[in-house]
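Sat 14:20. Reprocessing the chain from the morning session after the first attempt stalled halfway. Input below, unchanged.
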Amino acid sequence: MREKTPVILRCLFLLLWVAYFSPPGYAQPLPLYRIAYGTTGENPTALWIGVEQGFYRKHGVHVEVLYMRSGPLAMSTLAAGDVQMVFTSANNVLNGAGAGLDAVVVATVIPKAEGALIARPEIKKPEDLKGKYVGIQSIGGGGWANNMLALDHLNLDPERDRIQFLVLADQASRVQALETGRVQASWLGYTFAEVLKKKGFVVLLDLGRAPIQYLGTSLVTRKLNVRQDPKSIEGVIKGTLDSVRFILNPENKSVVVKTLMKRLRLSRPEEAESGYYALQTTYSTDLRPKVEGARKIHRIVSRVNPNLQKIKPEEIIEDSLIRKIYASGY
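Finished this time. Tokens:
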């Protein structure tokens, strides 16, 4: 017994030493939060920077960012419980709500329409699109919504004007389809739109400059998650806010450009710079979602999804956490 006592004491001492000197994350790993997104342009930069700069870990959340082929697919992973959040726009949230998913916007990074409706050089004016093909990423997705917002603003109706949608993959694929003439127009984010503008392609509408109200790219989760784990969601919102502030600080331009080059697989810094400057005008440090931005797209999406007639735009907004954050002075 005398021989065992020193051994026991040494073991107890070792355990106490490990517990005292180990970092907090060693004993209790940070909760994992997976965020899916379905766009291939510059919009998800806040997520990428948030992970790379450690902003999410600073607020007690380990975030993994996952690319999905489209917004609707990303929303399906939220419904299945494979991810805890989606970085997407109001149309996908509305479609999810129409299907019975308790999806809500908890913070909005891009509070307006953005990107450009780009057309081939032979398309000189909006009316020239009648009877032509427009490239989209998916029916009902964010790219489709931006195309629909642009066409609506230009007084074009796909059914009346016989405009057909061609589903392609990502924005790079739509750029290729425009160059080969497979489609005559498509909405693109500013990074890819700028590449085609330099080749003589026509900007039929810059959505960011048009007076279009829209609830753009946002952090979306389920009401169930808000009730069960508000602390983690608040951490994600704060980390995203830190990231947006970092991106909008001119001193961090080189870091943001490098991230855009890496994530979008761009070979030249000037290509990434167009995306960087676009973020300076589209991102907002006021992450409070506005119901006015959901009303117009609700009307448009309701044309193809009758289930939305029973959904009110304000039902997809849950702003209690972001209001709490701002009220604290953060």
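The two ends are 58 Å apart (CA to CA).
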